[in-house]
Amino acid sequence: MNERTLARCFQSAHNVMRNIDGLQPQDSFDELLKYLFFKENDEVSQEPLGGFFGSPSEASFRDRSNAIRHRLREYTNRSAILGEAASENEILLSDEALANIHSIFAGVRLTKIGIDLRSSALRVFLSGPLRKGLGIFLTPDDVVREVVCALEPRAGDRVIDPACGSGTFLSVAAKTMKTDGPPVEVYGVDKSLRMLRLAQFNFKSDPSVVLKSACADSLALDGRLPAPPWLRDGQFDLVLTNPPFGVSVNRESANFDGYLTARDVNGEALRAQGSEIMFVEKALRLLKPGGRLGIVLPRSVVTNKKLSFQRAALGRLGYVLACFTLPPETFNATGAQTTTVVLIIEKYGASSQDDHVSPVFARIDNVGYDTTGRAREGNQLPGLGDDIAEAVRSGKSRGLATVQPSILAGSSFERLESLLSGARSSGTRGTRTLDDLISFVSTGTTPSRASYTDNGLFLIKVGNLTGSGINWIARDRNFVDGKAAEKYRRSGRLARAGDILLTSSAHNSKYIGKKVDIVTEIPDEVGGEAAYVGEVMLLRPRPEVDPFLLLAYMRSRHVSEALQDRVRGQTAHLHADDLRTVTVDADCFSSPLLKQVADLLREEAEVNQQLNSIAFQEIRLRAELEKARLLQIAAE
């Protein structure tokens, strides 16, 4: 039995439920998990039902399915998931569908199939669209392994995932904790019964690991809801989790009184808060003093200025040991393009807020595949966890894991944004920031659809930026009417010669700052005046700064990486205030090499002007030819 053979069994069962009972993917997957639970338990019973072959009669369908339903009730009564209703254990399939599925799995011994093969088969079966439709978002195996390695689970540790999903973090942790002694116990909580059943299916194959699970919302466990004795704050050595992103939690569903991160600066409970920031706090509360957390989070938790107070509040519970960033393609298989970070956090124990710590940082640009899912050489993930663990222990950089300057432990969450961006204050000797070189920086605004016209004020859009000069040829919706134009003029968002423009908003962070162009002139053909839309950022050099030197610097790899570090949100955005913090080496602008590049860019700008001029001439010529053709037709 290999992964593809098992995956085909899953697919065949799925097809039976669709074709015979007309079930949707979500319902058929739930029923499949119930059957698999029955099948595993039946294989170890003293009197297994065995397989079923041939063409059964209608009575045989009914007899066989009734036997399966009866056995399932027996098995689930002995090992039901905490929090599930009794009705959730009933198989809802028709007798014919259930008997056919039992026949499909007749030759399969699930109890002989280990967790690795099960997980692989499920990944093959659960295609991207099906996973998304089922709400199943699997953390990539490479990411899970490195997070677990960074935390170094040891035998005897109590490990929990408060949003465990299919249990991948727990299964990898359990492997490192196994001994020749009693089975390893790990703990999982998830509010989705489907996900818990999936986790139980994965763990059932390994008798050396016991999964204790609860079907509950971890953020709502405040004493009002039943919980098992093991699910208490302050009881765990390690928390490993990739919690749900972008879920708004309201104070009616969770008791905000118990959360620092659900309060404002005045101590008042918020009406709603993002689940990801609350999960950080919940995880820290689950830990024992000195316990550690490894958590995957959207980058916005670190960079969103609206969460500054909440990050400071987390600094009263624990401190950041390490952080590494992941590129957007990491979660492509789940249908998400979210830029994520992984935080390794320690709850205060022997240490306190007033101690000094040196966080470890790593930036990952290559996870072994590109945005299309194709393999890519140079995967930077393997070995990262070990490097981080060693850097934390020794205080010395190793591999991509670099030890940062010492800071107060209590300020580590507040310093996260600057840690990711690598920003230093302009007062640091030997460096300055872009803010020292520019007099104005702003993103544009995008007008209403009704404002667009065939002529008027020209709008520079992302499509007009090429990375080798602005393309001034008008396309669809490049002009706005007089009313919109007046708003641009009043706001000061008009471009002029010497201004530099770049992409500042995109569906994928890799496009931020990818195209950087300079305004040398605004052609008369477009009215000699131009503004820019909300997806474009403009920066204006100070009078003493050579705009072509600044353009050369803005196109450098250093700036490109710095901009990527400053991207915010699940839809990628670059904020003007963040761009101002990009560092500039003090002697950089006197570098002969940069000056040489700037001279080449001047030549590029001249060529671009000529190309635009030729294009305008071609447009005029075509218009004249068309006019002549129409006149000829009229004369005839």
Description:
The protein is of the alpha/beta class and 636 residues long. The protein folds into three domains: 3-116; 126-421, Vaccinia Virus protein VP39 (Rossmann fold); 435-617, Adenine-n6-DNA-methyltransferase TaqI, Chain A, domain 2 (Alpha-Beta Complex). Helices cover 37% and strands 17% of the residues. It contains 19 helices and 25 strands. Helix 1 crosses helix 5 (115-125), helix 3 (58-79) crosses helix 4 (95-104) and helix 7 (141-151) packs parallel to helix 13 (384-394). The protein is globular. The chain starts with a helix and ends with a helix. Residues 423-430 have low confidence and may be disordered.
CATH class of the largest domain: Alpha Beta
Kindly report the CATH topology of the largest domain: Rossmann fold
CATH superfamily of the largest domain: Vaccinia Virus protein VP39
Unreliably modeled segments: 423-430
Strand order of the largest sheet: 3-2-1-4-7-9-8-11-12
The Rg value, from CA coordinates, equals 30 Å
Strand content: 15-25%
Report a brief summary of the structure.
The protein is of the alpha/beta class and 636 residues long.
Characteristic key phrases:
37% helix; alpha/beta; 19 helices; single chain; 25 strands; globular; 4-stranded antiparallel beta sheet; Adenine-n6-DNA-methyltransferase TaqI, Chain A, domain 2; 17% strand; Rossmann fold; 636 residues
Helix-strand layout with pairing:
Blueprint: H1 3-21, H2 25-43, H3 58-79, H4 95-104, H5 115-125, H6 128-134, H7 141-151, E1 159-161, H8 168-177, E2 184-190, H9 193-203, E3 209-215, E4 236-241, E5 248-250, E6 272-274, H10 275-286, E7 287-298, H11 300-303, H12 308-314, E8 318-326, E9 340-347, E10 356-357, E11 360-363, H13 384-394, E12 402-403, E13 407-408, H14 416-421, E14 431-433, E15 438-443, E16 452-453, E17 457-460, E18 479-480, H15 482-491, E19 500-503, E20 505-506, E21 516-518, E22 530-532, E23 536-541, H16 547-554, H17 557-565, E24 572-573, H18 576-579, E25 583-585, H19 592-635
Parallel strand pairs: 1-2, 1-4, 2-3, 4-7, 8-11, 17-22
Antiparallel strand pairs: 5-6, 7-9, 8-9, 10-13, 11-12, 14-25, 15-23, 16-18, 17-18, 19-21, 19-23, 20-24
